[in-house]
Every structure is written in C-alpha cells, then in structure tokens.
C-alpha cells in the first residue's frame, strides 16, 4: 500500500486518485483557517511557487477537529485561503485526521511516520505541548495527528519520508524537500 492507493475529494467536490501525483515530491498537510499556525499558508505558498516547476506539490486538507479552528464550508475555506494567503496549491474537502473517523490517508501517514514528540526547545513547541497537556492530554498519546499544520514529506515513489509537527515552519523544510527534488 502507498499513498497512491488513496482517493480524496477536492475542495470543489471532484474525486481525485492520489496516483495523479505519482512522480512528484509532496507535502501533505492538515490545515485550519483560525489557528495560531494559519500564517504558515504564506510560506507553504512560497515553497509551492518556488518548486512546483521541479515536480513539487502541496496538498492541503482542512480539518475542524482541533478546537473547531476550521468552521467554514469548503467554499468558505477555499475563498479564505485564496483571498488572505494567495493559496494556489491544491486544497481538498474538510476531513478528520485523527480518531476513529480519520480519513484513511491520514491514518496511513501517521502509521508510516510516527510522532516523535514536539520540539520543546522551540518556543511554540513548548506552548503547544503545554496547551495539549492541559486541554487535550489524550492527543499526546500515540502517533495520530496532534494539531493543525502537521506536514508529511513524500518522495517521488510515494514513500513517507518525514513528518514535521505544526511547530516546524514550512521554510525550515527546504533542505529536506531539495534532497528529494
């Protein structure tokens, strides 16, 4: 099984086989419009613009599971991302990314690239960890997605190469992305 075996639904309702992205380097991320990490859209778009001609794609999956930080409809999410961040990379319909109703793609990604902990040397890592310990301690158990803007790096063969937690800024992924391009 690889990521190419999964079907997803685009933000406008079209069914898409991830096989469409075979041969490309991918970042797959769960996103939200009302999160402290939402400004990461800016740098994700910068990465997309810089590397898309080299076979790089970013796939954004809005999710409302984390403190209801993605409350809008798919249309509202798409408009928000385009108007506020100029997002031109592919967005998909809102899904769940953790728990029993998690989309199979995110169950697969979490299994293939387990949670290694948050960077507690980074200020936002400390803040997120403390917040989760206080409000959602169960989120810190296991390999599931911990919060919005968890990012998975996929190579051209569809292998999950790396997992970047929300506290990793998109531009800090450049060296890993470039190795695969």
From TrEMBL:
Keyword annotations from UniProtKB, A to Z: Oxidoreductase, Peroxidase
Record bears the keyword Oxidoreductase: yes
Residue ranges of the TM segments: none
Pfam families xrefs: GSHPx
Protein name stated in the entry: Glutathione peroxidase
UniProt organism field: Clostridium thailandense
PANTHER family (UniProt xref): GLUTATHIONE PEROXIDASE
GO molecular-function terms, A-Z: peroxidase activity
Family annotation (InterPro entries): Glutathione_peroxidase (IPR000889), GPX_AS (IPR029759), GPX_CS (IPR029760)
Superkingdom classification of source: Bacteria
GO biological process: cellular response to oxidative stress
Protein's UniProt keywords contain Oxidoreductase: yes
PROSITE patterns assigned to the protein according to its UniProt record, in alphabetical order: GLUTATHIONE_PEROXID_1, GLUTATHIONE_PEROXID_2, GLUTATHIONE_PEROXID_3
Entry's family note: Belongs to the glutathione peroxidase family.
